UniProtKB/TrEMBL annotation:
Keyword terms, alphabetized: DNA-binding, Transcription, Transcription regulation
GO molecular function annotation: DNA-binding transcription factor activity; transcription cis-regulatory region binding
Record-annotated DNA-binding residue ranges: 37-56
Presence of the UniProt keyword Iron-sulfur in the record: no
Stretches assigned to the HTH tetR-type domain: 14-74
Top-level taxonomic group: Bacteria
InterPro entries: Homeodomain-like_sf (IPR009057), HTH-type_TetR-like_transc_reg (IPR050109), HTH_TetR (IPR001647), MT1864/Rv1816-like_C (IPR025996), Tet_transcr_reg_TetR-rel_C_sf (IPR036271)
Protein name: TetR/AcrR family transcriptional regulator
Gene3D superfamilies reported in the protein's UniProt record: Tetracycline Repressor, domain 2 (1.10.357.10)
Upper classification of the organism: Bacteria, Bacillati, Actinomycetota, Actinomycetes, Kitasatosporales
Amino acid sequence: MSTPYQDAQRVGQDAVRAVILDRAISLLVAEGPAALTVRRIAAEIGSSTKVLYTMFGGKEGLLDALYREGFARLRRAQEQVPCGSDPLEYLTELGRAYRERAVAEPAYYRVMFEQPVPGFRPSAEALALADGAFGASVAAVEACMAAGVFRPGDALEVSNLFWAATHGAVSLELAGHFASAEAGARYEALMAALGRAFGAGS
């Protein structure tokens, strides 16, 4: 029987990287930071430790890769949202994509925002990637202002306020404070309220 590493090798380098990252984040969530060692991950996927050192340079590089991967997946999810002709609906859809990505992969969400490994600090490259993941939201707010849907203002600041509010709702949901049956409707109500708060007539 082949190992996960061998299966991924047949597909390519990107598949190998994904297998390593997904196994690493599973260990982090299931057993905590102590389980996140190069030797343990290599044993789990059936590779040599050299493979991980070559790709990530060690544990710190692996953590940085997990952080960057979370934001890369968020950016890809938002890039799949069709822009359409209604800028407010587009902004709302971006918010839905944000929640859906967090709920689908809560482990990555925690690495992105909850610092589950004490002492870890993302690299400058990783932080730049994180900032870039919200470019679509800023552009959507700018479009709302240009169309007269939102009153004029600082699009980056308004986007950050949307993010702060929706991040709070998602974090409460992932922590179990909002039951899944009600979390979706509450999130929709929150986004609608935010849209009204910045509306041109408010």
